[in-house]
């Protein structure tokens, strides 16, 4: 062989993933920058089965290389993950690429984890972009530890790549439509009736709004589950509805982190086990609604949820770092305890706070004649009211704190001035404001919240 010939590239490892239904994802790739050969693809994941568009391995490799070109001089903080979005019209694809640094074969390399979709799926994918990116970011955190210790990162990445393929396939067929006909919801009934008791509907909607519009609806009857899912989605924006999913009649989907509302079917024994890690890693706290026994439970508010989430995330990564072999703790294992943090696995609690806003809305909406557009109009006015209250609350806090320059100390005055003396009303408006200004809960309640938790637990023990 002539000395001028470049070394042969080894064959790229490939995994075919069996996904039920049509998966809009064409492929996922893990690539890295080789100082001799340039961009190199280490692994390719492709969904198994018929696809509308097909890419050869060579085309997938070319697209993966495209995302790493120009990254050799990348300057970023240690541990940073850069998200890049490519639209290649000439190839008819979109590429979402997460660029990060990691140790591979003893050397520090620039790596890219990418997912490739047809350009025709752009409108479908965009509402789900944040969900996919946040999940991939966390698996990269675990993957970097695995790389640092010389373990197989592909096994770690597969733990999130495969579920994301399943998520996109399920959303393709069972996502909630952007426009919901009120006739398909509980709000169109002549009265609430035996199928959905007034107190249950009130508590479900109230808790749903208190947890920033994130809810899990479980049950044995798919029609009943989906009716409640559509009802709760009426209180979401059109973009948030695109990130919500109906349940599947013949089998149950898995719980997916990041969706706003999702319907889940119980198994033949009448039970459904929620994965602790995935629920805790949801961006907002969640409401759990069981339509079989009419129970509503919720997670703690945003500041407590964020606190528990970050503590657990550090605990999980610390446990992975302390492993002595690849088999000690599989990367998808729940970390039950750590030296400094023991998570409470019973994360769903009874709804603590009553409200007047939703109670009045439920009472009044059923006074309007069904079958007309009156109830839809009244619902729109109710949501507009909550939005205005949230904007007013934000402006009030800005003025009181000089736009965050000093701590907020007048919660009692806020509740009185804005007519939010009922705790449930305050929590609903705070949840709306949280989505407008992320971190509001932590700013208002951040320092004293642990004390308030202890006081609450002490009072509940009597």
TrEMBL record:
GO terms for cellular component: autophagosome; endosome. GO terms for molecular function: guanyl-nucleotide exchange factor activity. InterPro entries: C9orf72 (IPR027819). PROSITE patterns: DENN_C9ORF72. GO terms for biological process: autophagy; central nervous system projection neuron axonogenesis; endocytosis; swimming; swimming behavior; thigmotaxis. This is Guanine nucleotide exchange factor C9orf72 homolog. It comes from Cottoperca gobio (Frogmouth). The gene is c9orf72.
